[in-house]
Specification:
Helix content is 15%, strand content 37%. By secondary structure, the chain is an alpha+beta fold. The chain has a single domain, classed as Thiol Ester Dehydrase, Chain A, CATH 3.10.129. Strands 1-2-4-5-6-3 form a six-stranded antiparallel sheet, covered by helices on one side.
């Protein structure tokens, strides 16, 4: 991975591919519009009708993102915030858990999902992010996620702190 990757806003899909190891169809973030290193990030997911994982779980039967995919979008936006740091570019981020997650409404085909993630704690290759997802002015999900950073050979971060 390029260590000297210059990042300028907005990050488009190709810039995101240089940060995250995910690829289509598992890369779920389309664009990053705001980025404050070590603090916060805002990402966009355009929900399209032709995405294969949509279900008819919305109250009116329209195709909607399942909560697991919505959670993954929030996690990927948070991962971009962490992995964009030059000293973490050769590492992977491992999802360790979620707490106090609330799903407050459906995200349907045609919606523009705006995800904000904030660093709550980052120390010794482990951390906590707070995430919030909105469609328009409506919050559709929020919660806290824990993660660990590890090497590309699969070694998780410092387990003594976990």
């Amino acid at each position: 991975m390029e260590k000297d990757l210059a990042l300028t806003l907005p990050f488009d899909y190709s810039a995101i591919e240089r940060i995250l190891p995910h690829r289509y169809p598992f890369l779920l973030v389309d664009r990053i519009t705001e980025f404050e290193p070590d603090k916060r990030i805002v990402g966009i997911k355009n929900v399209s009708l032709n995405e294969r994982y949509l279900s008819t779980s919305s109250p009116d039967g329209r195709p909607a993102l399942p909560p697991t995919i919505l959670t993954e979008v929030v996690a990927q936006v948070g991962a971009i915030l962490i992995l964009a740091k030059p000293e973490y570019r050769d590492l992977l981020i491992f999802f360790r858990g979620i707490e106090r997650v609330r799903y407050r409404g459906p995200v349907c085909a045609g919606d523009v999902l705006v995800v904000e993630a904030r660093v709550k704690r980052l120390r010794n290759r482990m951390g906590v992010l707070e995430g919030r997802a909105k469609v328009g002015d409506r919050i559709v999900a929020n919660g806290t996620m824990t993660f660990a950073l590890g090497t590309r050979d699969g070694e998780p971060g410092d387990q003594a702190t976990g």
